[in-house]
Predict the 3D structure of the following.
Amino acid sequence: MNTRTLALALLAASALTVGAVAPSLQNTTPNGVQRGTEVELKFNGSRLADAEEVLLYEPGVKILELKEVKDSYVLARVKLEADCPLGEHKIRIRTKTGVSDLRTFVVGPFPQLDEKEPNTTLDKAQKIPMNSTVLGTVSNEDVDYYLVEAKKGDPISVEVEGMRLGRTMFDPYVAILDKSGKVLAKADDTALFIQDAYATIVAPADGEYIIEVRETSYGGSGNPYRVHIGSFPRPSAVFPPGGKAGESLEVKFIGDAGGDFTQTFSLPQPNRFKSGVVAERKGLSAPSFNTVRISPFGNVNEKEPNDDAKSATVATTALPVAFNGIINQKGDVDWYRFTGKKGETYDINVYARRIRSQLDTVLVVADADGKTITSNDDTGGADSYVRFTIPRDGDFTLKISDHLGYGGPECTYRVEFTPVLPEVTTFIADTARYDAQTRKSIVVARGNRFASLQGIRRKDMPSEVSDLEFAMENFPSGITMQAATIPKDQTTWPVVFEAKADAPIAGRVANLAIRTPADAKVAVKGVTWQNYDLVQDGNNGVYYQTWTDKIAVAVVDELPFKITIEPLRAPLVQSGSLDVKILVERKEGFDEPIKVINLYNPPGTGSTPDITIPKGEKSANYQLNANLGAATKSWKIAFLGSATVSGGTAYASTQLADLEVAPSFVGGKITQTNTIVGTPVKLLCTLDQKTPFEGRAEVKLMGLPAGTTAEPKSITKDDKEIVFDVTTATNAVKGMHRTLFVAMNLKLKGQDVTQTFAPAGALRIDPTRQQLAEAKPEAKPMQKTPAKPGK
Amino acid sequence: MRTLLTALTLVFPLAAFAAPNLVDVRVYPPDINLSSKVDIQTVVVQAVYSDSTTKDVTGQAQFALADKTFARLEKAAIHPVADGKTELQIKFEGKTLTVPVTVEKSGFTPAISFTLDVMPVFSKAGCNTGSCHGSARGKDGFHLSLFGYDPDGDYGKITRQMLGRRVNLALPEESLLLTKATGSVLHTGGKSFETTDPLYKTVLQWLEAGAPEDPKSLAQVTSIEIFPKQAVLEGSGAAQQFTVRAKYSDGTDRDVTKTASFVSNNDTSAKVTKSGLVTADKRGEAFVMARFDAFTVGAQILAIPSDAKFAFPKVAELNYIDTLVHNKLKKIRITPSEVTDDATFLRRVTLDIAGMMPTPEEVRSFLADKDAKKREKKVDELLERPEFTELWVMKFAELLQIRTDNNTFQYKSALQYYDWLKDQFARNVPIDKLTQDLLTAKGGTFANPAANFYKVETDVLKLSENVAQVFMGMRMQCAQCHNHPFDRWTMNDYYGFAAFFAQVGRKTGEDQRETVVFDRGNGGVRHPVGNRDIPPKFLGMDGGKPNEGQDRREVMAKWLASPQNPFFARNLANIVWAHFFGQGIVEPVDDVRISNPASNPELLEELGKRFTESNYNFKKLVRDLCASRTYQLTPKSNELNAEDTRNFAKGSIRRLRAEILLDAITQVTATKNKFRGLPDGSRAVEIVDGRTTTYFLTTFGRASRDTVCACEVKMEPNLSQALHLLNGDTVNSKIQAGGLTGAMLKEGKSAEQIIEEFYWRSLSRPPTQTEQTKLAGYFEEAKTPADKAVVLNDIFWAVLNSKEFIFNH
């Protein structure tokens, strides 16, 4: 409990200046709220003093007023609508100078109260009313107990949110005990919530019951959790686990101790997010939903017995269709029959683990008699998938079983047949390991630029689609975008955003769309699909992640610096390098060093990860290199500069600049040459002129061993060879040196262009005869090798 | 040799005056099968007397063949004459026995075989031992497979390396193979045999025949037998000749006494000659092993002094355990100690069953109890305490290596595995069921913690070694690279058993800390010699061929944890026995092998049998052990059993193991411990993770569970333990933290009462008069209550540092 106060104190202390850029949001207090209420919600973080609004990603929440705005927190009056969706809500704080990290809070159905320590022993269990949510904390190896009263036959349910809070690595355990401490039900990991747990019982007698909450292995160090305790329904599965969009669906909720029950929902239109249905019984809602899939096609539900191909459940409608079933006991197998048309291709996806069923499915697609055509166990996760092209008109069957022979009434699954459709999305990759937040919004300062390196995911793109482009949707006004069309083979692409000097300071949760150009024959459109790995532990272990299909975009107050690229007049040649001059324009009084990164290296080119323009400097050169195979083409590049402004990191980018990658001017080969130490030698390099160039280029012999030197020479486009005069000192390193190459430097349109050629040239340096004689040991009389002791 | 033997057997039976009655005469082998012109069979006759002693009476017995047309006798050896069947009659002191004799192919002289004839020469002469040419790199340029596990490879090395020198077919006598062995050419290993030795002749004969390669159809040795299986030799110098017979895959057998190598594990009590003649010396037990081909067999020798006056006292036999222990004691002429007193028994049994000290109240009420059956009642009561379960959960956690391992085995898995085990014991799940559940476990390790068995160890070979060691008490490791020299296991056995685990699949679960274990349905293990896939085979018996699509582990588990597997129940019974008696009947408990025999095989057999019959009921077994008189013996020895350590003739004195000692100190000082990942006040016995430890526990030899070896728990006392108890931060801090002295002083108790309380708490007895008087002296200086408290705490400290406290006795 105390850790929270301590954390706040620390945060307050660390914020040295008020109104800084790059606001940080850590969490909210409380970590969740009850729907249908009006509450005060505190957004804790740092550099929040110029906060202007809370950016919301989901509906149902209204920010009525920012009551207090301090550097370390923003206190808001928030209204949660009665129909506000239960579960996670994602938020950011937008300040005048920046956009914060993305964080979450939870909306639940019950009144909330705080845990009161000490409740670490059974006899000190904290008494709470039924159907409430306790906001608790597991301090070091702590166990928390709560006491409720129930009448015989009443359901007692408990559900804990630990990992789902997206805050700390916290794997909770819950148990329902009777007053004597006997465990009536316990849960550690559940198929439904992975690490988070729930348990339900029916009270065996009138009396008091105890709920235990702890870390699964008695760990914990100040980890928050929310535990819902009451008589609400907490089913573990729903059947059928999906239905047709826009239609009503009657489902059966399975697995609650209070018994199975049905409920009808009307399904919305499909979207990328997991959708679900919330169980409700006697006016009490489950704290969170059970997943259902929404599809554009209808259901075929399993009819047992369907344990072999003959008795398979038959799809009465044509494909596409979804089969829904339950592996209802150990070893159960389910068969389905469908009719296909030759040549049609379908993705057959089994949804089991993805709809939070514990099954590890195995899918077999077979002919009408049940003879296997193709099969799959796992693709990606535990679920099965095949792409199936129907080989002939007629009937086919498919079989679903569990890899480990599991089964049970809650083991639901859904097999969806979907036609193959193209898909494209864009996202921003993590900028560093374990950093899910940096530069995941588009924050453009007035009169300045910001650049983002967008990742592109393509799936089943038709061959006709060659290029894609980005489009701003619902961006704040005053922002323009510079981006070239994205070639087919590129999975990352730089995009530059520019805000007008008078653009209004504002923020939006917008969409950066990715689509085929307007004149394309086949139209494909995709959205932003961005992951946030909120809980990570161990080596790249992501325990909890959330997704958005929106990106936060804001125009913020102007920055004290701007950077630009001095336009490139010369190309970057293959096997060559080129300096890009980055110019900085600082405002009066601002003299911080500026770190510059190259956002995008075209294929075959490279550069150092970053450079710094030191204090007082007006420019710096960023060297780009190209290998021999770099694609000769015109590319767009952009550099992103960052500097500490009022304690936070502010970003500004250069313009989107052209970079020409050109073929090399010259190739060549060094003829292998021998010499003796101390003797000068002429080294011949024959030239292979490739691209004519103007004027003279200086050529240097590089990679010479110690003790040897060669004067630079110069060449023109007409030269056929170079002869280097190599001098060797008496102490030159003897031996064969295969490290020689030629570096060429050319002034092109006022810019230095360098290139290398004739790699791996060889020079052998031998010792003098005298040295040889000295080095040779005195000839020993031939020694007879002693006979091996044989056997 | 035969003359010598006859001479010896003639002399010593005379020395054994006043011999008790002859009970039985045994002839070995039970049948004689001669299957070639050169086949012979020697016969051994053993007389058994009423005092369990035996004598080799081969020399005194009269032999006669019923029909001399088929075979002829040469002393005690039978030679073939013509094909047919007859009988050998043996008469000794009025008893007559007959042995069937079959002669086949009496005109056939088999070709000399490299594998059947020459290879045994290398073993007999010691050429292929690890210190000679059997070492991994060979010796002086000549490498043979260790103990001859690879005859084909050896054939190649002998005939294809050093052509014309190692083997010289033109002048066979000049082959280095022979000249080195006889020492006529310098040989680092010295002279191995003479030119007159039959070993020499065998090799020479083979070379003269052109060093032929064996035909592929050649019969293989399938087993060997040693006769007799046991000999009780009375008096120093008593001798017994052994005979070894090999059986072959074509159904024939051969007397291989001359080519088998013999070794005794206790030369002080029984020496064995190269020809298999054992001579008794000092009192004691020995085990004589004979090795031939890939096989090792053994016989037990008891050497006892000739003492006609020995009479076993009339002591109660409370159950079968006592009967079987006494039978052995009678044979070796030792008498058991007396039964211990009630207080000592209570302390011993409470520590053994519950791993705790009896409270003073418990001791007093036990002493006051007049019920004749109170000891049994106490055992029953203790068996129902949760601490009994926890103790065995700890022991099994050691065997199953429950311990965290960075990034591969997290504490969550360890805790779940431990809780699963605890639940199994709490529900008294029969141990065969538990074992089968472990061995066939599949699914996610979170959903089914038993599957952690396959997460702890992922290497197929190590896994199968662990299974053999944990559940059958066998160390198979040697057979990975060569046939086991002191045991029966061959590389075929090793890889055949490992093949059961070759198809275990593992994948990471949805939570990356979880591993999903499944049956891959394909895969195998390959024999390093010949790189061939080895089909699964049970250890020590045929069978184990799983059907197509069947999980190999299921077949194995069904056999392993069942009465069909003779090792399973015996091994568990032995582990339990070792806990209560300080050492196993086979010791160490996880090193069952031919060369490490049980000190009382009949007892182990019976324990295993009864354990199986009780459906592997753990509590029943413990009840039997604790109810026996043998368990209740005092450690005070008598004249006869003072030297004996292996026959349970007296109570054992055992240092408390690390966890129990810490719990005992914690209990008597009324303090609590806090271990990582466990609720406050948990006992050291309940520690889940092998990696969780304290300085105290490490010093006292807690198992880190890095291996399955029983040797991980260190019971040997050492200096740092003593120093830690004296000066370390455990005993003294706990005395301070517990504040018993202060509390009792506050209650107004006198110093004497407080001291008495310390004694009751720690030693389960009041101080003796002498102790009281001595301790009273320390209070002369202490005037104030504070001074008194200091002295009292010091006395408490001294009590906790006494051997009487630290040891279970």
Remarks:
- Chain B is about 35% helix and 15% strand.
- The interface with chain A takes residues 140-142, 162, 165-166, 176-177, 180, 186, 407, 410-412, 414-416, 442-443, 446-447, 507, 510-514, 516, 518, 676-679 of chain B (CB under 8 Å).
- The radius of gyration of chain B is 31 Å.
